[in-house]
Amino acid sequence: MSDYVIDAPAVVALPVAGSDRRFPVRRVYCIGRNYAAHAIEMGHDPDREPPFFFQKNADNLDPSGTFPYPPNTSDVHHEAEIAVMLKTGGTNIAVDDALEHVFGYALALDMTRRDLQGEQKKLGRPWEIGKAFERSAPVGPIHPVAAVGHPSAGRIALSVNGEVRQEGDLNQMIWKVPEMIAYLSEYFELAAGDVILSGTPSGVGPVRKGDEMVIEADGLGSMTVSVA
């Protein structure tokens, strides 16, 4: 007999490149406006102000390669990102020690209902309705640090139907991965299974049903996602 009054939710687990074992997800933290050019295109100052984060849900991460166009929106945007997967955590982690907590990296998309997000911004309300909807974070296989190291520079790009929309370099991140981990650990107790989406370069834009998105980054290969 189960100890629960309802069926327990399934564990969200992502594939690991070169392994039959999977990575269980605990929380998903997303940094906003972490590339200067993207901050500018969104109408903000690119100076190095304190970082800010919002959250998606663990089951928003989707490795299927298909993105279902969501309801109640007419303006869904792509945001190409690198996801950072933690194997350990803690509080008040020093910047110099932060990378010791990383299991690996993956390609990811922070799909955004931009019209709904914009409405919430005007009202001073949270962004979840624009950011944390079902299957809003397509993600590729996780590449362990043992295989790829810690990517800190190199091209990241996204194309839609063969046309390059986003292109940047990982070294253009305003807040680097160790700094993100250290900052988050001052406000949250990080733990194994936590995922950090590290921001997107400029060029975000809309997708439509039938589009094909391809995201690629040096050292992490490419990922194709179809808009259903």
UniProtKB/TrEMBL annotation:
GO terms for molecular function: acetylpyruvate hydrolase activity; metal ion binding. The keyword Hydrolase applies. It comes from the Bacteria. Keywords: Hydrolase, Metal-binding. This is FAA hydrolase family protein. Residues 28-227 form the Fumarylacetoacetase-like C-terminal domain. InterPro entries: Fumarylacetoacetase-like_C, Fumarylacetoacetase_C_sf. It comes from Halovulum marinum. The keyword Metal-binding applies. Pfam families: FAA_hydrolase.
